Protein: DUF4179 domain-containing protein
Organism: Paenibacillus odorifer
Amino acid sequence: MNNNNLEKQIRELGKANIQELPPLLRSRQDSLYASLATIVQDPVEKEKKKRIYPKITAAVTAAILLSVMLTAIYPPTLANALKQLPLIGGIFERADDIGLQAAQRLGLTSRLNSSDTHEGITLSAEEAVFDGSRLAFSVKREGEELEGKLAGVTIGADGKPFLAKGAITSAEVLIDGASLEQFSDGLWKAMPFLSWIEGAESNTAIFRLVDSSNSGISNKPFPDRFVLTVTLGLNGMDEPFVLQIPARKATINKISTPDIRAQVGGWSLILKKLEYSPLTTRLSLMLEQDTDEDHTALSLVGFEVKDQQGQVLKDISQKVLSTSNRSLNVDLLTEPFEKHPNMLTIRGYLYEFENPQSKNGAFKTDSSGNPVKHYIDGLEINVLVK
């Protein structure tokens, strides 16, 4: 857009009467404020969270705030002009994922050029990054009278959740034209895992596709290059949206096979493989039960990874597959470590149930709503990181 034209519109609109902010622009205003809350952090809070955020100047911040305030005098010409002003940074930069933030900062991401439009709604693939284990890509939605979230439920004025028009209801993907079932040679347990979460703005979503080559069933990893075809269904829309995501491995991963074992109280934990990149940390584990005790406990064991500073790496996925009634493979994928550690610690734990006498049902939660973990003493592995 010509900056002179925009400035002229702003000067002319400054004489307009102040009116009530319409829902569409209020949504845009809230989205901008949400972006600022993510980008502009108090130094103490920034150090506390240890996240990687882009730096912006006071002038840029003032420009964004001016754009938000000007929506209070919202004639359509200005609204349309403001829609064309890009947010600072990409969707990955504002994600609560240090791997995606690092990938953006290191220039590992690729900009995408794929979109589809139906009934006045456009979905666009924005950016992607791939490290061989995880393919992440972002999607943005544009359209009139869409006030609900693209990913997940929206909370209405009555406080009740509902699925808004234009929210994602289904997602299917093809890898170079092959379905996930075909890609995994019909082994559904070895199929790559697809999931998505809401981005920092309600009209964005971040998808991730994780391969299952560490499952112990299939050794078929993703190729270094492929094209992902994504078909998305939206609530209230008759036709699906189709996007093309070119994937290219952008990292050189560090891989080690330490084969370290920890044994305690009838349990054995083996670390078979450690792989890490700026995008993810990945561990291949085997858990064995050495006794004839109740084997249902096997399926209830979870694992966490922390660095030498005690920072627990945030889970991306944990895929568990039984290889016998006494053993299982665990494919554990987490966010990367922020600073290269000399050592990582893997710990096994069991969730506590609300009913202590039960081995199923609802998990017991703490004051923050997180499941309570009971760590298994001695089921711990320390591994040096090269």
User: Anything to note?
Assistant: Helices lie at 3-13, 23-39, 43-49, 58-70, 76-83, 98-105, 180-183. The chain is about 20% helix and 40% strand.
